[in-house]
Design goal:
Rossmann fold; binds adenosine-5'-diphosphate; 8 strands; 8-stranded mixed beta sheet; binds magnesium ion; alpha/beta; globular; 9 helices
Length: about 260
């Protein structure tokens, strides 16, 4: 005979409830780093300075598109891509931000958008761009979320449909920003190289190593693409009362 102890019941309930609570907490955490009127002056300024440097790099290559990548997952690529897109759109330039991290998409959580269909469904010709793009998420900013997680992300990114799609975007937008997968793990991000001027690389304080950066640069060089610069995130500011809980961003031009 099975005896139900009172404690057991509580345990079972917890096991069901906790993952859901964790998920919503994580989503909240993801969107809290998005630029807004409440953002720290230093952070807004750091993004403005990154924006200026990227604009110079793009003007030299006559390209309107770039990808944001890093060595590993969780470095802050999607957060940086979203914030750069916001920063560019604030100049009144028409910007599109696309989630190409088809294995571990996160832009929709960061920007609190629906992701029933998106980039992968459009490339697979199940939907059309105009039906899935999120228009005017902010003035001048459109966003295309990742869509359904596909079994073959690499093949999708190389498909001729993407070539036609990027040609269209080049006609319709002033800046095209791809949030992409980590370069250290899979090659997907490097498959974007033909559509972009280069890669903006995110490094995270106390996580990204010199070895990681070397590998990143090597991989980019192998595909004959180029790094546009680095954004370093997660730099804590040491105040009088010890470490403060907010983050600075630094931009480094790559030579
Ligand atoms: N500058 C930052 N300061 C604090 N937390 C950050 C920062 N950038 C990203 N994060 C957090 O790190 C986690 C991963 O960020 P995300 O942008 O999704 O990384 P990636 O796209 O590289 O996987 C998220 O929970 C996000 O809220
Ligand atoms: Mg991401």
């Amino acid at each position: 005979m099975k005896i139900k102890l009172p404690g057991q019941k509580i345990k079972e309930k917890k096991a069901i409830e906790e993952p859901a609570r964790d998920k919503s907490r994580k989503k909240k955490k993801d969107s809290k780093n998005v630029l807004s009127e409440k953002s720290k002056f230093a952070i807004v300024e750091a993004y403005k300075s990154a924006r200026t440097n990227i604009m110079f790099s793009l003007s030299a290559s006559e390209q309107k598109a770039f990808a944001v990548s890093s060595y590993a997952k969780g470095d802050g690529k999607s957060t940086v891509a979203a914030n750069l897109a916001i920063s560019f759109s604030k100049m009144g330039k028409k910007v599109i931000l696309i989630d190409c991290d088809l294995r571990r998409p996160n832009l929709h959580n960061i920007l609190k958008l629906e992701n029933k269909a998106g980039f992968s469904d459009m490339v697979g010709r199940m939907v059309v761009f105009d039906d899935v793009v999120h228009r005017d998420v902010l003035p001048c900013l459109d966003v295309l979320t990742s869509g359904t997680i596909p079994p073959n992300p690499s093949e999708l990114i190389c498909s001729p449909e993407v070539v036609r799609f990027v040609e269209r975007l080049n006609r319709e937008y002033d800046y095209i920003i791809f949030d992409s997968p980590p370069i250290g793990v899979v090659a997907d991000a490097l498959l974007l190289k033909d559509y972009i001027a280069g890669y903006l690389l995110v490094t995270r304080e106390r996580k990204t190593t010199h070895g990681d950066i070397e590998k990143l640069l090597q991989n980019i060089k192998l595909t004959e693409s180029k790094p546009l610069g680095f954004i370093r995130v997660g730099v804590t500011h040491e105040g009088k009362r010890g470490r403060r809980g907010y983050y600075y961003y630094y931009y480094y031009q790559y030579y």
